[in-house]
Write a structure and sequence with these properties.
mainly alpha; about 180 residues; 7 helices; Arp2/3 complex 21 kDa subunit ARPC3; globular
Length: about 180
């Protein structure tokens, strides 16, 4: 394993995850991008899943216990309904493994848009299942998806932005540092 490349890839993902602490519009976040990034660059696919999930968990601990501490009223290990978010990250990684076999502008944009759609569909489905304000049935499911629409454009913009920054910066770093070109 190329340890330098592994550490740089992991560092990119962790920094992206920690950017959630910076004030931002709702859903303008790096989740899709860091999941795709891991899928594209880790040769050992277990790290494609593991590193983004661990980075998201670390950032969630900080977000929940620093930024939203008053909301939760005590130490929060997991956000309510966390499994829908973590599940969407895993599905985005899986999609990224197939979409990003070749890394170029077209596949990164396609992956980013796919990530946004996956996150929207999975987390709003989870909201429908877990939130009693939505009636069980197709009407409630459609209500949940409709409620998520105002946030979807921020998801798309965030995924495109973070994907552009992460993929662009790493490709630039690979050109400057030959050791990063060798896959793990």
């Amino acid at each position: 394993m190329n340890k330098k490349r592994f550490l740089v890839l992991s560092g990119f993902i962790l920094v992206a995850a920690l950017s959630r602490i910076i004030p931002h519009p709702y859903n303008f976040a790096p989740m899709g991008a860091m999941s795709l990034f891991g899928a594209a660059y880790f040769a050992d696919k277990k790290f494609s899943f593991l590193v983004p999930l661990v980075a998201f968990f670390i950032s969630d601990l900080l977000v929940n216990n620093l930024l939203y501490a008053n909301f939760y009223g005590g130490f929060t290990l997991f956000t309510p309904g966390f499994y829908w978010m973590y599940g969407s990250i895993a599905l985005i990684v899986l999609a990224g493994i197939f979409i990003l076999k070749k890394i170029n502008l077209k596949t990164v944009v396609a992956g980013s848009l796919s990530a946004s759609i996956i996150f929207f569909l999975v987390t709003n489905f989870g909201s429908w299942i877990g939130n009693p304000i939505y009636p069980m049935g197709i009407e409630g499911l459609l209500m949940s998806y409709t409620a998520g629409i105002p946030f979807f454009h921020y998801t798309v913009i965030g995924d495109l932005f973070y994907s552009g920054v992460m993929f662009g910066a790493f490709e630039y770093a690979k050109q400057r540092t030959p050791a990063l070109q060798i896959a793990n």
